[in-house]
Amino acid sequence: MHFFTKFRLPDFVVRKLLNGNFDRVSLACMSPAFLLLFICCTAPASVMAATNFYENGNTYSPIINSASFVLHGTVVDEKDQTLPGATVVLKGSKNGATTDINGKFILEIPTEQDSITVSFVGYKSRTVFVGSNRTMTIKLESDEENQKLNEVQIVGFGTQKKITMVGAVSSVSVKEVQKYSTPSLTNAIAGRLSGVVTRQTSGEPGYDAAKIFIRGLVSQSGSNAPLIIVDGAERELNGYWTNMNIQEIESFSVLKDATSTAVYGSRGANGVVLITTKKGTVGKPKVTFRTEAAIVTPFRLEDNIDGYEYASLINENRLNMKAMAGIDPNLPSVQPVYTAEQLEQFKNGSDPYAYPNVNWYDEVFRKNTKQLTNNLGVSGGSESVRYYINLGYSLLEGMYKEDPDSKYETNAAIKQYNFRSNIDVNLTKKFTIALGLSGIIKGANFPGPDKNSIFTQLKLYSPITSAKTLPDGSAPAGPNIDQRINPYSLVTKTGYTKQYYTTLISNLSAKWDLASVTPGLSVSGLLTYDVVDITQNVRREFPATFRYNPFTKVYTPVQLPSPLGLSLQNENYKTAYGQFSIDYSRSFGKHNVSGTILGSRREYTNVNTGSSIDNLPQRRQHAVGRLTYNFDSRYSLEANAGYTGSENFLKGRRYGLFPSIGAAWIVSNERFWNKNVVSTLKLRGNYGVVGNDQIGQRFLFQSTFNLGAAGYTFGFPQVISENGRSENFIGNPNVTWETAYKTDLGMDLELLNGKITLTADLFHERRKGQLLRRQVVPAYVGYPSSIIPYANVGETENKGIDGSFQFRNTTKGGLYYSINGTFTFAKNKITENDQPPPQYPWQDFRGQPIGANLGYEAIGFFKDLADISSSPVQTFGTVGPGDTKYRDVNGDNKIDVSDRVFIGKYGSEPQMVFGLGGTVAYKGFDVTVFFMGNGRRDFFFTQGFTAFPFRSNEGEYNVMQMVYDQRWVPGADNTNAKFPAVRALSQNNSQTSTVFFRNGEYLRLRNAELGYTLPAGVARKLSMTSIRIFAQGTNLATWDKIKAIDPESDFGTGTYPVSRNFNFGLEVNF
Amino acid sequence: MKSIISLFFLAVILFTASCKKGFLDKIPDGDLTLDQIFQDPGHTRGYLNNVYSHMPKEGAMVDPPAPNPYNGISDDMEMSYEASQSNNWNAGNWNSSSEGAGLWTDLYTGIRKANVFLENVSKLVPSEFASQERINQWKAEATFLRAFYHFLLMRVYGPVPIMDKTVGLDEDYLKFRRQPIDKCVDFIVAECDKAATGLLPRVADPADQGRPSKATALALKARALLYMASPLWNGNPTYSNFTSDGVRLFPDADASRWQTAATAAKACIDQSLTAGYKLYNNNPDPSLNYQELFWKNFNEEVLFAIIGGGVDDGYAEPRGFVDADFGLISPTQNLVDAYETKEGVQPVLGYNADNTPILNPDAVTYADDGQTATATSNYVAGTRGMYVNRDPRFYASIIFTGQKYKWTRTTNPRSTPIQFWRGGFDGRLANGHYAETGYLLKKIGHPDFSRTPRVVPQRSWIFFRLGEQYLNYAEALNEAQGPVGDVYTYVNLIRTRAGMPNLPAGLSKDQMRERIRHERRIELAFETHRFFDTRRWKIAEVTDNAIIYGLDVQATGYNMSSDAFYKRTPLEKRVFDPSKHYLWPIPQVEINKNPKLVQNLNW
Predict the structure, then answer these.
(1) How many CB atoms lie under 10 A from the CB of residue A374?
(2) Coil, strand or helix: which one is A539?
(3) Is A619 left (phi over 0), alpha (psi -120 to 50) or beta?
């Protein structure tokens, strides 16, 4: 009794406990650990909740007045769909509740004479007399007009009414995003937003975030990453935002065009991602607990040929060498290496030490691993204090196998704790203050060597290079310095790495309503301070390695063991930001005006860096002005401007003005419009100038000297080497940001009373002044390329279309179904890159997309020696039958650099991205599927370096099964060969060419989910408002043209694969 | 409550809107400006060091991009390393995009730095750390370096743009053109004269070894004038219509240029002798004496050398030595056959179609085959006849089968003669590198060098030495005046020092020309001269269009007395197209930047 009052549990819990009807089932359901967690988390929340009682001057008593009772209510719409988030207030008091995800609420009613008022955005409010009802269902009538008029969209430095805004903003339903079992936000939004291009290239725990570009690539030289704003402040923060707990996000929007982004001045040109986190709502504490467990399997690990095939391929290489013109067939270098007998031994594995056959991927990777995610959110509050508290915990395991005898763990594993606490306090009616605190604490374990070394070794070690372990369990020595230890030993026996990542994000904001000065006026302020600390302890060691003679059974030590060492790395960043704004918004009859003036300052410091330049704080100060005007919800006008100053540029060139102007016409609000079919039609257009100051290096205006430059040696017999001094860099005082000139024409459409919505935007951007190192300065002027100044000379053009649609319907029988899709097409073109006009006009990068590749066009493989002698001469070493034959572009009967052409059309990122999904729900069941895909993407195996067998030497590097199966084989029918004959060290065959080019388009079943919400009655019996169980899968199927490797990856080889997840979860609400 | 509100906004306003002066001013961070560099004697000296750092490291001939590919392209040498660029040149497999861009860029970078130095050094106030004399000397050094870098470009590309001041990025940097070759030479002559006035007659302070002296500047001048007088630049008919903006880049022939060259060489010799330079002659064994000239750093004959200079003895070590697997620098049989007999007769005059040598009937002491029964300090008994009784410089320059190589070195001496046949100690094995010609370079290698245990003597690479000037003078004087007394005198000084008899009296001008050319090939072998000499004499279309010979190092089963091993074996037929190969192409990327920079003919 005393205990409960002290901790002030939510009174319904108290009540349950007092009444003793806290049933056994629910107790059994809550494991003791969870109960403890639950109590710990809710306790402070209820303390906060309790404050309103004091605030109101009431004396709080945990003993419930016997006259009062608890009303269980449900709020539904006209179609009996429940309405989550509706506000229920006891009339004449400040007590109230908010409906949960299932539209249910619980409210303590003092007497049977009381009434409650139920309201919800977009619906007409209702006041209902309670009487003797203990359960009620309240139906709200939708106020569609009003709903549409009042629906709000978060934009830069404020919110705007969706219907009258003129900018192009995509937003995603947070509920959709939260379905993912990925801890990385960028992966959860893939394909969900029109205009957003994402590509995930690695699945390594902690490093699996996708690249994200708004409307594709535009800058050749600067960053193409969008600006990330979380709760009002810039928070890219070294990966913080991709690590954000998806469950705590309230809204996720992307600003794409000039009108939306110009207010960000020199930071807006790449688009802006706006994220806000959840806030408390008035009502009793609402608890959401979600737990899920996933089985994670790697998607398309490299499939390599086995030992027998590998050894045969070495013999085949000899055979191919023999077939070359002018080769003496008696040379030992063209004799087979393995006899048929030896080949057989690779196959039957009778002597795994003399004739090893190891699939290193199998030895290094598990078949599957696991991932756990738990989340507990509590929110509630009163009119004066509202709170949202969230705790998340996730465990991600990597796929590395471990040595059972190892002293330490080597598998990758990340334990991540997230917390967030957002508190809003109305200090007075006019003055609100909010404090948001959030943190991520992450502890990670990795194998000693980094991922790249592991994957390099995996590529380097062929199945026949060495055994996995020697008969006595010791590690075998590799054949040379690069291969001194095999991948299995490397992963399990060379130490481990501990990584600690700690972030603290804080927001303190206030808003002062100055309606008393003049109606519609308010001032606000925001102060934020964020710190990130990443510490890494690398513990490396090396085991003793031996060479083992399988015939004499003698071990020869090769490498002595080295003890476990320690190296420490630390990164530390801090950011302070402050912003002050004056907002005005008022309606005069049909005229609605609003304006904002805002000033801000930001300082970002990389505290722990070795570079004195990077160590200096990066500062920016910024002013924003915005004016909007709307007449009668029919015509909108907006003009805004950002004015940014940065320390990165020379005094006098620090500030830039970035204006934009836009207009919208809501045609459907005209009197002549018939809304029966097309209920909303809005046309918008805008134009503006935005900047990108993320141009790479800092202080490019300043010349710097290198005091440790190349010197000279004088003196004899006493030799003295003296350092030199040289220009490290030659400054260009005129250096400035990139400037984007953006145009956007958009249309928003709603058909059949909102059943179908459609948005489409045409966009065009010319990005000028991209910072490039001068290319046209002749070498005789004497600036070496390393010191030559940068200048704002690059230009690109980007244009395309993006759009989204949604169709949703509920049948009379209660079947709900919806389809939604997004589409992005963005095509960029370099228009100026400062490249001197090339000797061969077909090699001009101007007119090509960013990331275009020059290479040779393969026209097949040489059939025989006669074919070689009758073809143009290829200048990359002697060729033989089966070697790649290239097209002689300039017709000089010689294949050389002049014959390189642009291969592929789309550049380094896909030009087209789409997502398509649907949901069907009936009774308690719901099924959702979501597909995403890329079109128009060029895919290259890196330089053919690893894709081409024996590129670096005979018997070095693994050979992909696909390459093996599709190679040119001597004496066989090679009409379908896709890869040349195997030929060690062939310069000819490993040229960048269309041989290694594939169409990168794909369609992926990104997500599928089956959920079941238990009937409300069951939940109630368990003292919960709702229980939902679900099973879902991520990356379930992929249709593509590459097959062998992930089409989303950079080059397909050599990195941690993305994963395919199956997860099962439970979400309960109290 | 009001106070909380006020406090909060005060804080916000303080952070965001306060006009804290210089919020955006970059925090000073110890960055130096050009002015600061040149106000400090240490930094100024450091800047000059950086100008020096562009000196080509001509001892590095093997690994691409080698600062010295020239030796490997000359008929004296073959690089037994497939990645060496010289192999591309020798196969004719190069173009304006593939080779040489590094040289062009690096030298012009050095030239710009010299310009920056010369334009700013006057900002340095003399002090006890840098006296006015010191500053003047530095200025002269920078002047010399700028001239030298221009010359290094000219000897490869011919006429080049003269860059005698810095060019700002806001200037019209496309206005520059290639200058006529005589203008380029005039520039070098004038700059060398200017530098000579500021340089010391001879570097006295041991700490300053490696800096140029007065004689160095005069040596560069003499060499540039010798090139200018030679057929490649002096009225070359191939280039008579080669123009830039209507200006002819090669002048009409002018025989008086030979006299100018002779005078300049004599001036250099006189200045050198006055300053105490002389031919190195400190060892009674002429062969050892000649070797010491190259590994006794900064001896009295050296006018200018670079310490280190990229010389790597390991690239010339036969693989029979411990851990030696990189013996790659292989002199050709063609050069071996060029050495005279001890009596001063050239034993081999050329090759027959069946690759057998055309023996000189006058070489009576020469036996091309057979073995000697007599061991000497240079070789063991049983050594092949063709290695016996040759010019002492042969034994100092070339490692050959039967040689007692490094028998006397202090660390790990060897007691087995060199064996270059396949399966021999130093010959080809199943894998790894091997000397493709059956010879390795000895001249520049240091006798004490050892890979394991590691002994690496300090090395240097000579750019100018007095001996070259003797031959420059003799050559120019013979062309200007015929075989007058001084011509004989200076050639014979070189021959006498080498332990060779004097030239026979009564040679005609043409005969003398051949003797001098031959003398240069032998005396200056592997010092980067051969490549440029064959070009300036316009004989590369013969010498570099020829079959390169080695021994039969591929077949197995030989031993020291196998005749078949010593058979002259064609290694490659080199490619030299006289219509274009005399000059290198300007890098294509530079032509792209400034199309007014005319490309050399036929590239």
Answers:
(1) 18
(2) strand
(3) beta
Beta strands in B65-194 (DSSP E): 77-79
Task: Share the mean pLDDT of chain A.
Answer: 87
CB-based contacts of A969: which residues, under 8 Å, 6+ apart?
A316, A882, A977, A981
3-state secondary structure at position B135: helix
Residue A62 predicted with pLDDT over 70: no
For residue A398, is pLDDT > 50?
A: yes
Split at pLDDT 50, 70, 90, the class of B28 is low
- Inter-axis angle of helices B41-52 and B101-120, to 10 degrees? 160
H or E stretch at A25: helix A24-29
Name residue A469's beta-bridge partners. none
As a whole number of angstroms, the distance between CA A458 and CA A959 comes to 11
CA A449 to chain centre: 25
Which helix (H) or strand (E) segment is B250 a member of? none
Q: Distance (Å) from the C-alpha of residue A658 to the closest C-alpha of chain B?
A: 19
Cβ-based contacts of B55 with chain A (< 8 Å):
712
Q: Is B50 on the interface with A (CB under 8 A)?
A: yes
Give the Cα separation of B398 and A133 in Å (integer).
114
Helices (H) and strands (E) counted in chain B, each on its own, are 19, 12
Q: Is A1070 helix (H, G, I), strand (E, B) or coil?
A: coil
Sequence-separated (6 or more) residues with CB below 8 Å from residue A770: A219, A220, A221, A222, A695, A738, A792, A793, A794, A795, A796
| ipTM score assigned to the predicted complex | 0.91
Smallest Cα distance from B564 to chain A, Å: 20
SS3 A19: helix
A58: tokens are: 């009431």
Separation CA A1064–CA A183 (nearest Å): 15
CA of A770: how far to CAs of A144, A691, A766, A904, in Å?
Answer: 47, 10, 11, 24
Taking contacts as CB-CB distances below 8 angstroms, the residues of chain A near B47 are 724-726
Torsion from C-alpha of B479, B483, B484, B489, nearest 10 degrees = 110
pLDDT tens for each residue of A836-893: 988 899 999 999 999 898 999 999 999 999 999 999 999 888 899 999 999 999 999 9
pLDDT tens-digit profile of A740-774?
Answer: 999 999 999 999 888 899 999 999 999 999 988 88
Asked if residues B304 and B462 have their Cβ atoms less than 8 Å apart, the reply is yes
For residue A1015, give Cα distances in angstroms to A138, A810, A1024, A1028: 19, 19, 11, 9
Check if the beta carbon of residue B474 is closer than 8 Å to that of residue B357: no
Most confident listed range (A3-17, A180-194, A201-215, B6-20): A201-215
Alpha carbon distances (Å) from A146 to A124, A563, B238:
9, 72, 90
Mutate to test the interface with B, among A605, A781, A792, A843 (most CBs of B within 10 A): A781
